[in-house]
Amino acid sequence: MKIALLGSKDFDSLEFHINDTLIHMGHEVYxxxxxxxxxxxxxxxxxxxxLFPKYDVAIFKKIAYKIIEQQPDFVICxxxxxxxxCIKLIKENLKNVPVIHINPDQLTTLEYQQIFVSxxxxxxxxxxxxxxxxxxxxxxxxFYLPEAFNPRIHxxxxxxxxxxxxNINIDVVAFGTMYPYRSKMIEKLIDSGVNxxxxxxxxxxxxxxxxxxxxxNEFITGERKSEIVYGSxxxxxxxxxxEISSVNVKYFENYGIGGFQICDYKPTIEEFxxxxxxxxxxxNIDEAIExxxxxxxxxxxxxxxxxxxxxxxxKNHTYxxxxxxxxxxx
Length: 330
Prior knowledge:
Layout lengths: L1 E5 L7 H11 L3 E5 L9 H10 L1 H18 L3 E4 L6 H10 L5 E5 L18 E4 L2 H9 L5 E3 L16 H8 L3 E6 L2 H12 L4 E6 L7 H4 L9 H10 L2 E4 L11 H9 L3 E4 L4 H4 L8 E2 L2 H11 L3 H18 L2 H11 L1
Parallel strand pairs: 1-2, 1-3, 3-4, 4-5, 5-6, 7-8, 7-9, 9-10, 10-11
Helix pairs in contact: 2-3, 3-4, 6-9, 10-13
Enzyme class: transferase
Keywords: Glycosyltransferase, Transferase
Organism: Flavobacterium luminosum
């Protein structure tokens, strides 16, 4: 099947993994991004589309014509800010081709709510709250689709785990952009005496001075991310506050890599996990600190949990599973 994919081409993005997975499954993929139709750097172009509505329409019409020219059998869109005119054009010119939207993020990232006024054939969300709202209140053809991991990217390093843990020498690691909610929680860990190492980007607008010295000044992706996740004793994975019932993509990636994580409790975790979720989830920061202190000096318990989870996630939570789920629903 020939599939058009509209979204980011950045490494380790959702679209990167969808593209890689579809090709791995034997499909032909035409992946198009905004950068394919305009030379302006993404951050400037993004704000230009916000400030100049006609420019916004023009950009996405160009993308629509690129997709139409390819004559795909199926179209997958992921950006939340795709102009509705783009989808209308595609639907008008590709009469019998399903056009769907997959929203991988929590519910505060809906831009101007473009997806609600775009004529997609189906919508996919990882958040039960949004699925129910879209199905019952707006009568949109909406399905539940959790996030996933890519076993060709998110995999254990080929090195002895105990040796790597010694080499890495990290008790607790957290990575990603340190938004205020995340940095405040990490501050509480540090105040309790937990030794935390941070990878990623500090919050430039509201920098938290208490956590700054814990940064390693490195943004981790690919093999390096696998090395850090697998080699650290504990990964502290605090979900965005707008994850009402959903979990973030790191939850799946960490287990795909074979890392041991402590994360927020969400009822949906019970449908994903092979292990009793009380063993690694917390309902408040005090519980998180208690779990961290418990597991730091219990490597065999950590390894046992991650081995069970990694095998289970490989059998149930890869992007191949998610794409097959999408196709089965359509």
